Amino acid sequence: MVAVTARTIVKRFGATEVLRGVDVHVPDGGFAVLVGPSGCGKSTLLRLLAGLEEVTSGEIRFGERDVTRLQPRDRDIAMVFQSYALYPHLTVRDNLAFGLNLRKTDPATIASRVAEVSAMLGLDHLLDRLPRALSGGQRQRVAMGRAIVRRPQLFLFDEPLSNLDAALRAQVRVEIRKLHDQLGATSVYVTHDQVEAMTLADQIFVLNKGVVEQVGPPREVYDRPRTRFVAAFLGSPAMNFLDGAQVGASGLALPGGQTLPLREPGQFGAALQPGRTVSLGVRPHDFVVRADAPDLRVAVELVELLGPELQIHARFGDAPLTVCLDSQSGVRRGDTLPLAVRALHLFDPATGLSLRA
Amino acid sequence: MSPSGQGRRVGLVESIGAHLLLIVAVAFALYPVLWVISLAFSGAVEPTARVIPVPIEPTLEHLRGVAFSTLEVPGGPDRWLFGLQLANSIVISLATALVGVVIAVPTAYALARFEFVGKDSGVRALLATQMFPAVASAIPLYIILDGLGLLGTRSGLVLCYATTAVPFAIFQLRGAFETIPRDLEEAAMVDGATRFEAFRKVVLPAARPAIAVTALFAFMSAYNEFVLAHTMLGREEMYTVPVVLQRYISEFSADWPKFAAGSLIVSIPVMVLFYIAQRHLIAGLTAGGVKG
Q1: Which domains occur in chain A, in start order?
Q2: Are strands A211-216 and A240-247 parallel, antiparallel or unpaired?
Q3: Where are the transmembrane segments (chain B) (predicted)?
Q4: Which end of chain B, N or C, is more open, meaning fewer C-beta atoms within 10 Å of its C-beta?
């Protein structure tokens, strides 16, 4: 196993700069998730780590080894592709053994490794089938098996679950994390799915427009987003934003005339100069109903029952607002809902940076 | 009557209609072939206009006449001329298919996968060569072959055929390579393959059906080609079968039964080839490699 370090990685395709000086460090045995919207450069970064693309500038090290200019086959990595990329003309057994055969591993070792991995992933009864005779989930497993069987120093995953249906995706996600804990191999995982990012990662790297916006453990990135982009990207439903709030003596003067009291102004430090305009962010789950001393009142426009909770689409002044409450809360369309805010995020309207001290 | 019964009746009528249509189509397609067969086995010298193509005075005389034609060799035993000519055809066609595929595979792969200087103009030039009929190049090819001393040789004819087979095969195979996902090669390279190994062990097997079709097509066009063969080959023992067959129908006489018998015999190798190639033509060999 090995630590992965990428320093000031720049990647251009012609005139397009896809990565603009990205730094990544994944400790030995760590599970890093690269997450971001389409076109943010996360897949490109992964392909650079794999050696499938060449860096324009920057340096990639696996442990002490400089691999920046090495071919993929010399990097001792395994990769699981979004499309699975199983060799269509080879049986599952030969797909699993492909890499070992190329490395001239002796047949007895190959047989025992294939047996071990197929038992681990429940592929025993499929070994003689061709990929086209497998279901999506089975193909995904073979792709995982092909990576595991080689015992590489580093696992790379390129959106490996996006072709599975929702139920299977949740199941395989758990399996991937279990496998990682079992094998202890360093892993880098690319996804645009924030649930995968939150659940799998030791470290989340949120990428946006070719730069890393924030790095940290999932909890930290979720609770203390450093930028408005990160705040909006992670969390489902997305965070609510209110622009144009003004810092006053007793709290935040909201555009509609209401005032939102600041319960813990200390967390924002010196950023709260009176008169300053800020953007305000509240996660849908950070609202609570409080009839006696509400922070704000919102007009309910639509209520969706999602089983355990209600997703309420409301309006505060002109701004749309999503609120998630317990399904027993009995909110109906047309209600005026008195809400208190449990946790508040403030951002600089110009830079998008969090004002948290 | 129940709706389902009605549905079945409509289905039956439709089915009868469809079958009638198919029978007519099959008859339309097979009628000339049946005529050729009947002609080849008929003892009567002159073909007569008959509706039903059945052999009159059945005989194997024409087949024997064609298949066992001989060439007198001064001071030696006669040579089996037709055998020689059929072998010419097969050897030339196989060589054309081989040359076409061997040159086209790497070229098409490069065009499908790499960006390089002159790629677009090269493809356009290649496409331009496809716009002219092969016959248009007959005279220049004749002059070139003459210059090379290859006039009247099998290799010379293969060279001529390659001028059309190669560009066609390149286009055919470029399309095939483009449909093979890059992920497959990249997976192989991550698994430890060099670029060439990825090509040989993953891309080539995945493209096998397309390569088989391309080779078959090159074989067929060479096997059926007449004009260039007639122009470039001077001696009887060098002829390919289309030239041989044509010689039964001359300006002053037409030996239709022999022509028909010859046509039947020369179609046998093609049928055998198709039978062998069938295995490689299984559609969707790449299905299931990626996604679902």
Answers
A1: 4-233 (3.40.50.300), 240-347 (2.40.50.140)
A2: unpaired
A3: 20-41, 90-111, 123-145, 151-173, 202-223, 259-277
A4: N
Asked if residue B46 has pLDDT above 80, the reply is no
Distance from CA of A131 to the nearest CA of B (A): 5
Return the biggest CA–CA distance within chain A: 77
- Calculate how close chain B gets to A56, using CA atoms only, in Å: 18
Q: Which of B194, B201, B287 sits opposite A73 (nearest CB)?
A: B194
Of A210-214, A347-351, B229-233, B275-279, the poorest mean pLDDT is in B275-279
Domain of B118 in residue numbering reads as 79-281
**Share above pLDDT 90 across residues of chain B, in percent, rounded to a whole number:** 47
CB B110 within 8 A of CB B173: no
Q: Is residue B292 included in any domain, yes or no?
A: no
Could you tell me if B204 lies within 8 Å of chain A, comparing CB atoms?
no
pTM of the model: 0.82
For the stretch B276-279, contacts whose Cβ atoms lie closer than 8 Å and that sit 24 or more positions apart, written own/partner, are: B277/B212, B277/B216
Say whether both B213 and B113 belong to one domain. Answer: yes
pLDDT, tens digit, 9 for 90 and up, residues B203-246: 999 888 889 889 988 999 999 999 999 999 988 889 999 999 88
Question: Can you tell me the ipTM of this complex?
Answer: 0.86
Query: Between the CA of residue A235 and those of A119, A222, A320, A351, what are the distances in Å?
Result: 36, 7, 17, 21
Half-sphere exposure of A227 (CA within 13 A, CB side): 14
Report the distance separating Cα A42 and Cα A187, nearest Å. Answer: 14
Q: Which one-letter amino acid corresponds to residue B254?
A: A
Number of neighbouring beta carbons within 10 Å of residue A33? 25
- How many domains are there within chain B? 2
Amino acid identity, position A197: A
Encoding tokens for residue A56? Answer: 């324009």
The answer for residues whose C-beta is within 8 angstroms of residue A161's C-beta and 6 or more apart is A140, A169, A172, A173, A191, A193, A196
What's residue B292's pLDDT?
38
Residue B140 has pLDDT above 70, yes or no: yes
